[in-house]
Amino acid sequence: MLPIRRCGCHDAAVDYRRCADIITELLENPQGLPREVRQANVSPLLTALGNPEHGLRGMLVIGTNGKGSTCAFAVSAVTASGIRVGSLPSPHLQELRERIRIDGVPVTRDEYTETFAEVWRAIERHDLPVMAQGVFAVTAAVHFRRTGVRVAVAEAGIGGRGTAVAELGLDVKVVTGVGLDHTRLLGGSLAEIARAKVSAARDGDHLVLGRLAPEAAAGAEQVVKERTGLTVWRMDHEIHYTARTVGHGSAQGPTTLVDVTTPRAVHRDLPCPLPGAHQHHNLATAVAAVDALAERGHIRPPDGEQLRARLAATRWPGRLELVPRARLGEWTGRALLEGATNPQGVETVAPEILRHAGVGAGAGDRSDPPVLVFAAMDDKDVRAMLAPLPRDWPLVLTRTDALNAADPAVLHERLSPDRRGPCATAADTPSALHRAAELAGPGGLIVVLGSLRLVGESRTALGLHPA
User: Fold this and answer.
1) How far is CA 19 from CA 22, 33, 100, 358, in A?
2) Nearest-angstrom CA–CA distance, 312 and 273
3) 67-79 and 304-312 are packed helices; what angle lies between their axes, rounded to 10 degrees?
4) Among 99, 185, 236, 339, who pairs with 452 as Cys (CB 3.0-4.6 Å)?
5) How far apart are CA 257 and CA 244, in angstroms?
6) Which residues of the chain register pLDDT less than 70?
7) Are 259 and 270 in contact (CB under 8 A)?
8) CATH code assigned at 454
9) How confident is the model over 16-36, as pLDDT tens digits?
10) Whether the predicted model's global pTM rises above the 0.85 cut
């Protein structure tokens, strides 16, 4: 095996910026090492660090869409049981440190740097090239060991069986849903993708399945039959929920209360503060997963009043996140940030985007449409992603600093030929936002859509701190 290039994390002067530079180099993979080789090194790296994952209990959340919100609800629900919980969101929006959280709060830059340096020294000492996702997972495990956190909520990257966080051995696996995304890695059908995701479940695990299309459900069942000692709770079978609107709500939409029933408990009047009907499903899935943790003895059952209070306080940036008083230079208006990264995701959130834009029955249609700022990775179906939104809305295409981000000119070529609205291109996210502000005019609405990296860069440009 080729030796890894020394990046100097053994140097006491290493800082947070250097950690970010190292991650960028890992993503670029200058040695051209196969993905399989770098994935296989996660387990030896954990061993080299004294297996920080031993004694860690919790859940691994997998799925095409809804993972981050489900994790956010799960963290809130676990804290209601009175214990500290670590979480590993993926990806981060603005800073690396967002990937390690205690009770939902990101660690400090100093804490991240100190733990990262310990992991990187082990990588260099034992010559263990790993993917960036592997470094993220191992760094979180080491930090949790340092701080005495024994319960974790981890969000998978792409897939399931090959995701680095699966090496942490969390025995409650959650699949939020399955859609056609990352088909080059996971397969070209819902059944294949479902098998890839559910394959993260090991013998003896507890598997929580969100609502799946029939083809995906059939693929999931194939994996279930291959496992022994598996406990399975399925949405609309062992898990049920109902949602109802109360009051008039706020600018974020009506207030919603959700009742969730699992084989372990009945939870009533759970507030769902994240906007969109899809979040009711995510909340129910998270509560079922927390009940599974309690069923396994990993946590105490959450207190009902505490559970409602914690869920009511749940926030998850970048998912239908409204900035009501956004400012860009001399411009002030509203910005709606949504990291829907595939056609299924955009279709799901489109009703909420239209509501904020004042489109639809009873909304009092506004004369000035919002301006879309859009960026995506180069493997995305741009035409299908934009299809759920009006074709006459002004559009600004841009690219992020992600390695596989599509060029704005390429995005323009992929637009539907029947698109009617004005379309501009911008070299980067700040330029795109300023162009959108010009088009929207004072008090207008900018909708940022299509890439979580775009959402993160937009949050930074708008002066929002990592959350």
Assistant:
1) 5, 21, 14, 43
2) 6
3) 140
4) 339
5) 6
6) 1-14, 159-160, 180-187, 248-254, 360-367
7) yes
8) 3.90.190.20
9) 999 999 999 999 988 899 988
10) yes
| Structural domains in the chain (count) | 2
- Report d(CA 104, CA 316) in Å as an integer: 10
Task: Find the domain containing 394 and state its range.
Answer: 321-461
305 and 371 inside one domain = no
Sheet with 240-250, strands from edge to edge, namely 240-250, 253-261, 266-271
Q: Containing H/E element for 154? A: strand 151-155
**359 with 393, same domain?**
yes
The amino acid occupying position 100 is: I
Is the peptide bond between 91 and the residue preceding it cis, with omega within 30 degrees of 0? yes
* Amino acid at position 178, single letter: V
What's the DSSP call for residue 361?
T
Measured between alpha carbons, how far is 454 from 374 in angstroms, rounded to an integer? 8
- Is residue 93 within 8 Å of residue 318, measured between CB atoms? yes
Between CA 301 and CA 386 the distance in angstroms is 43
Distance CA 73, CA 54 (A): 25
Q: Which residue, among 288, 296, 320, has the nearest Cα to 211 in the 3D structure?
A: 288
SS3 245: strand
